[in-house]
Specification:
alpha+beta, 127 residues, 4-stranded mixed beta sheet, 4 strands
């Protein structure tokens, strides 16, 4: 029997990178019967999350035990729920390493994904 989700990950299903990553995590979650749910921001009411579409497409959002986590911290909260990712999450939480990874995620990875999303949107490839 499946547990009620303690963790909810918000992702952009129109983004090939985000969709592929979250589909991989969702498959693991289902296989391991983890209490994690995945919400495609294009198929839900974002008011339930308290974020705008722009905020949701810029950085990852994870709701865990009623607390909203954003950015690299959100990624780590999700990884902490997944057996094979826990060690990596603990490592990335180390002082110094967390700050470097957080900066890289926000200023390089997430920015690249967001700008790619905007280009696809301008070309009419996403709704």
């Amino acid at each position: 029997m499946s547990q009620a989700p303690r963790t909810r990950a918000l992702y952009n299903g129109d983004c090939p990178v985000c969709d592929a990553e979250m589909c991989r995590y969702e498959a693991v979650s289902k296989q391991k019967n983890l209490p994690i749910a995945f919400d495609d921001l294009n198929k839900i009411d974002l008011q339930d999350w308290g974020v705008t579409e722009d905020q949701a497409t810029r950085l990852m959002h994870v709701l865990h035990d009623g607390q909203l986590h954003v950015g690299f911290d959100a990624m780590l909260v999700l990884w902490e729920q997944m057996p094979r990712m826990r060690v990596l999450a603990r490592l990335c939480r180390l002082p110094g390493l967390f700050q470097v990874c957080d900066w890289i995620y926000a200023n390089i990875v997430a920015r690249w994904i967001y700008n790619r999303h905007l280009r696809r949107k301008d070309k009419g490839l996403v709704g």
